[in-house]
Peptidase M15C domain-containing protein (Oceanisphaera sediminis), 130 residues
Amino acid sequence: MFRLSKRSEQNLQGVHPDLAAVVHKALSLTFVDFMVTEGVRTPERQRQLVKKGASQTLNSLHLPQADGYAHAVDLAAWVGEVRWDWPLYHKIADAMKMASSELGIPIEWGGDWSTLKDGPHFQLPRGYGA
Ligand SMILES: [Zn+2]
């Protein structure tokens, strides 16, 4: 059982409460500790990420949606240090999916995308709550 750091809690500010609830629940289920590295993004930061090739879309769910909340978070595996190995992200995704089904809140994992897989990325389905 892990706890979110202050920084992770801060990075959840502005994230849709349902997605934040899934993150909190997942932390009680996961075998791999993780931190929240990013939630809400400004349009300016999103433009910079696209320019750098770090993001593919200007229509990211990290941007505040119609309800005022970001609908995406990026998580980083924490094993005494941040690690990016895929097996860790599969374990985190297992916990996120279990939390999602326990809470009845649908989520999508960037690691399940067929192209440009994004292991740290989790989002509510586009149009969620609309
Ligand atoms: Zn992301």
In short: The chain is about 35% helix and 15% strand. Residues 6-123 form a domain with the Muramoyl-pentapeptide Carboxypeptidase; domain 2 fold (CATH 3.30.1380.10). The helical segments are 6-11, 17-27, 43-52, 86-103. The chain has one domain: 6-123.
